[in-house]
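One-letter codes give the sequence; each number marks local geometry. A record appears below:


***
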Amino acid sequence: MFKILTLTSFVLSAGAACADEKWLTLPPAPSMPEAAESGAAPVNGIDMYYALYGPAEGIPVLMIHGGLAHGDIWADQVAELSTDHRVIVADTRGHGRSSNDGSAYSYDLLAQDYLALLDNLGVDKVHLVGWSDGANIGFAISTSAPERLASHFAHAGNVTLDGIDPTVETNELFGTYVSMMAADYAAMSPAPDGFDAFLAGVVEMWGTEKPGGFEALADVTVPTVVVQSEHDEAILPDHAKKIADTIPKAELLTLKDVSHFANLQDPDAYSAAIREFLSQ
């Protein structure tokens, strides 16, 4: 996701953001609701944690979290959407409760993992809600296996490195986020002492140009809304607009008064935006 990041830059910027504006806060996610089913699926040489919520009928909603996070980050949205949708969450390879087999992280590999998970669950097609790295995984699926996606709610993704705001490297709220995810990793991971190596591997992926870039998006047929936060610390607004302009028939949605962490800062509005898109 980011051009150049070091472990020390995260440590130096870590600290609690104190401000009245919600876009400068980072509330923790509440507890997840009770799952209809959960487990670890054998996927591409790893054990991938997943959980299913809500009624089984209809096209499911697959929610893919951002880098360093885990499926429980979606707790507010899962609680709301699962009242009338089947919702699938998972922990991306090496994240949360999922293992890694030593493979280097890449968006193509992570996309293959999610497609294999859907195969394992017997799910042919999903509405994909992707945040940050989750949106980037969604772009990879949109270009490689569009028949598996009914739609894509793509929040805070990027397809080239020049779409990233360089000030994110020293942003205090991002430092706070990394500290929060380090604590969650220690509590969840099958390799709880491995956060530094995990972070280094994800940072390396963030700093690698994505294959295809804008050119690949020009042929996307998946109905897509490109979602940009008004105060996003990481993704430049012109980049989000260019993604929306490049994907045929895509829409651009700007979320007001929130940052990169909109799903935590204004969960009700975030869920409403997803619902509005699904209703179309």
In short: The mean pLDDT is 94. The first helix runs from residue 7 to 13.
